[in-house]
Amino acid sequence: METGTRGDAGDQPVRIAVVGGGITGLAAALRLRDRAPAGTTITVYEQSGSLGGKLRTGTLAGAPFELGAEAFLTRDPAGGESAAIALARRLGLGEDLVHPATGQAAIALGGRLLPVPGGTLVGVPGDLEKVAALAQPAADRDTDAGRPLLGPDEDVAVGELVRRRLGDEVVDRLVDPMLGGVYAGRADNLSLATTMPALARTARLENTLAGAVRAAQAAAPRAPGRPIFATVEGGLSRLVTAAAEQLVAPAGTGGGTAVGGVQIRLGAAVRELTRTPTGWRLVIGPTRDPELVEADAVILALPARPAARLLAGVDVGVGALVGRLDYASVALVTLVVPAATLPDLSGFLVPATEGTLIKAATFFSTKWAHQRRSDGLALLRTSVGRYGEEHLLQRDDTELTAAVHRELGQLLPGGVLPEPVASHVQRWGGALPQYQPGHLDRVAAARNTLRASHPTLALAGAGYDGVGVPICVRSGETAAEEIVKALGGATG
Asked: What is the tens place of the pLDDT at every residue in 363-383?
């Protein structure tokens, strides 16, 4: 078992490598900057030419727009402030947080936009009567058999449980489009414990699914009037920029302890990771001219598949566990249209059974007051691509944009959408993790093996802990704390 010391070189500064410059890696580096022993040097390696991963803001028709994530949850599962809100405040962006002007979304069904009913948990109803306008639950199936729905450690696909208890319509018309909007996946494949952890916990205690939903909602009540989502005025790239600026700021100017220095390296692909007698060796850059870097600790804050390739040189079993995770590809098509009459909705979701290319749409200039324009232009973004349907994305940008515009016109009231004055297609290949049942157990097994044999190597990111900015931030911070502990504790 390795230790956190450096042997004969113990008088030299501790060196920590963070592999991955998305929000997870940046959050990890910030926590290391705060908590690592004095004199520690931290280097963030990002293979692309920019930081932030899927937090990326661009400009379209003279105004900012999001090319990836658009918002984050304001509260954590326990009801406290989410890690993303805490990070924004820490970075000096607390006064720039804004909330949706409307939170009402709809489901596109049979040519109509029907409001998403209240009282559901990711589409699963706690009150069966409230969803009757959209789906007819098979109420006679959700009977009390005198035992909990799931065993103590059991995990199932969301669709399997909901179909068994409430029937196909609830899954196909409510749960599946909800999960498709977040994960681009299908309810019949996605892990309940990973995608809906609150419901998984109560399903191990309650005897009916409706009862489990109500128990999960009661465990995390929403205060009336408190916003659920937030974003940063001017774009989420401001989070990334502020984090990078604080990382490289001189010690003492950003609230951190005195460290040996923080360096951010772009265009630095880590190709190999191997154990050495005193730490780790990273092979960076092209095969013909590789750079060898020594580190005392490493955080892998990158997607599961590239992480698995690096882990293969450390522990084949851990690499295999991590590498089992698959990903879905999506395209985000943004349109700026003139004089559009849009419903007073944040957007809508489309069930896969409707047979459309579009699976979700967001009316940015309706949902967010700060994105409303004085010139009357409206900003709409659609999400295209479900897991297993990657072939539908094999069109050029012009063809994809035309197909999206045509379908939007058919789905919106009135059946007509003006021609766009500007458009943008953002493709995210292999972007969204597809957590199959048992995912959390596999991640726990991988991490437990690393803690026992390689405690100065940690895993962080959406590939392990779930999607969403708060989860990724917390994942990076937790990995940083583990590394600090393995290296002998924090200072200050």
From this structure: 999 999 999 988 889 999 999
φ and ψ at residue 117, rounded to 5 degrees: -70, 150
- The Cα 474–Cα 465 span in angstroms is 9
Give the pLDDT confidence of 337-363 residue by residue, as tens digits.
Answer: 997 678 899 999 999 999 999 999 999
Give per-residue burial for 215-234: e unless 16+ CB within 10 Å, then b: bbbeeeeeeeeebebbbbee
CA 208 → CA 159, 166, 214, 387, 392, distances in Å? Answer: 15, 10, 10, 30, 38
Please count the CA atoms within 13 angstroms of the CA of 91 that sit on its side-chain side.
27
pLDDT above 60: residue 54 = yes
Rounded-to-integer distance, Cα 307 and Cα 313, Å:
11
Residues 204-249 have pLDDT tens digits of 999 999 999 999 999 887 777 789 999 999 999 999 999 999 999 8
Please say whether the beta carbons of 384 and 393 come within 8 A: yes
Number of CB atoms found within 10 A of residue 77's CB = 15
CA distance 145 to 40: 58
Confidence of residue 276 (pLDDT cuts 50, 70, 90): very high
